[in-house]
Amino acid sequence: MQGLLKLSRAIDWLNAQVGKYAIWLILAATAISAINAIVRKVFNTSSNAFLEVQWYLFAWSFLIAAGYTLLHREHVRIDVVNSRLSKRKQVWIDIIGFTCFLTPLCITVLYLSTPVVLQMYNSGETSGNSGGLIRWPVWAALPVGFSLLMLQGWSELIKRIAFLRGEGPDPMGRLTDKTAEAELIEALRLQAEVDAAKAAAAAGSAPKPQH
Questions:
Q1: Are 153 and 103 within 8 A, CB to CB?
Q2: 129 phi and psi, to 5 degrees?
Q3: pLDDT tens digits, residue range 2-56?
Q4: Would you tell me how many other CB atoms lie within 10 Å of the CB of residue 64?
């Protein structure tokens, strides 16, 4: 089990790194969108390549960050019933979900998308729009993204099995990237800001001395 937990931590680290840098794809897409809008308004010209690269970047950021989102348990969940169950039952529901739904879905997407990516790469297929981009780079986001998602699903599965065996921590709590010391410092800082605001408000409401 300890070997599997080491694998789980390695997968967590991988998706944490991917998620950390995926935000730059959003920034790039935003910058290109703004530049394209300015050029279109000022010079009355545009390019389909600039328009397409925006959704290329969005597709990559959305797909490769899916594993990171699962790592931080930020996917939409229907907890109306689940939240009323015991912790062990919640863990079992997740185990069934990762085993019977997430993994088969990811394998199916990989099976269907990988040949398409290879075909597009070999043929050099390009967009049907004038000046458009080649297609395989955006399609490659599918196998890459779903591979990361499937790996993270296996990592979460390992954590839950370890928890049921009494060999791992509670996997259902909210994940945080901060250490206990960092959380304490942040709490003290917020408390200091609150105290300073109260002191300022009290000073402002104090009666002025009469001359």
A1: yes
A2: -80, 150
A3: 777 888 888 889 998 898 888 888 888 888 888 888 887 887 777 777 788 888 8
A4: 22
- Between residues 188 and 167, which one has the greater pLDDT? 167
